[in-house]
Each structure stands twice: as C-alpha cells, then as structure tokens.
Fold:
Amino acid sequence: MFKVRGEAHLPRRLVQLYAGLVLYGVSMGLMVRAGLGLDPWDVLHQGLAERTGLTIGTVVILAGALVLLAWVPLRQRPGLGTVSNVVVLGLAMDATMAVVPDVRMPAVQIPLMLGAVVLNGMATGMYIAARFGPGPRDGLMTGLHRVTGRSVRLVRTVIEITVLASGILLGGTAGVGTVVYALSIGPLAQFFLRIFEVRGLPPAPSVVVRRRGRAGPGADGPDRPDGAVTDRGVAPGQG
Structure:
C-alpha cells in the first residue's frame, strides 16, 4: 500500500496528479506530431517504436516499467504517482496521436512545438506538486545519485546523453525541439510548481545526498523535496 500524506487535500491532489499525467502524455504526442525534435527519452522511445513496430505510447509504458524494475537494487520506493506515470503517459500519448495528424508546414509545426513544451511544463508542475512521488526515470536518477554519491546534475547529464545518443542511433528525432525543451523545461516547471503548489502538506525529505565534508545547502546543489524532480525533464536548478 502507498502511504498518502495530506489526507485533507487528497481529492484535489488526486485530480491534479491524473490531470497532470494526462496532459503530460498529450504534450508528448503533440511534440511528435510537430516533427521538430523530442526530449531525450522520447527520442529513445520513438527510435525503439520504429524498430519494434509498437506504438510509441506502448514503448513509453514498457520502458517505464523496465526503469521501475531498476529501482529494486537501488532500494527506491515508488509512490502512487510513480506507478500511475508508467501507465498514463503512454496511453495519453497514443490517444493524442490517434486524433492529431502529422503536420509538415513550419507555420504550424513551430507553434505546435512551442505550445507542447509549455503544456509539458504546466503538466510537470501539476503532477509533481501533487506530491505522490517522482516518475520512474527521475527515481532512477535520484537512486543512482544516492548510491554513487555523484551530483544530481552529473547523473542526470550522463543518463540523458546516453538516452539521447541511443535514440538517435535507433532513428529517433532530435532537432530544434530537443534544444528548446532542454532550455525551457526547467524555468517552466519552476513557474508552474508555484502555481499548483498544494499548501498545508508536511515538508518532504531531500533527495540530495551531502558530500562528505561539504555539509550545508550548497554541498551538492539545492535540496529537493521528494518528487520535486521532473520525469524526463529537468527540475529547476537541477539541469
């Protein structure tokens, strides 16, 4: 059973969690339809989908489940949001792509890509602020950070470069959208986290491990509350 904190706010948090996850999946589908480049994990998902013949949403679900299995040796504990993330994103992504056609005109592609990035930032703020745990990919990052003692920034950079390079080799689409996403998702997530913050919840523990002999808030970057890292995005200050 998952531990649920802030029972007084539970209905609002549940609505916010699932609305955020659905909108996140929608934004992923819109990014694909824009055709101008995806975030690193979706470059990998798209490449795998092209190689296997599965829908990209199905690949998102399977990849999320495999990453979640990697939590076991890292002794990470999933939350309701973690498990929901695995399933909901892929379903919402496939549903979006079923109703939104490919676009080929730059006059449509560019606004669609920019709108998808902003929607992704809003969805990120919604589901993270609900405080039901990080997504599987960010749990992998924080778990490796805790086990290795390396900085969150370094661990995330290594993971995302590896994922992006693998996706490109498999035929995934990287482009201007990849760059726009990387540069803007942190500020957007930070803005929307403030908008959707659920006030009155108890403080959550930090996911940042102090380096020996370097105690204090700046030891490895700012402290982050549990779940305050964006799945497949860069949380404010973590980039």
Summary: Confidence is low (pLDDT under 50) at residues 212-239.
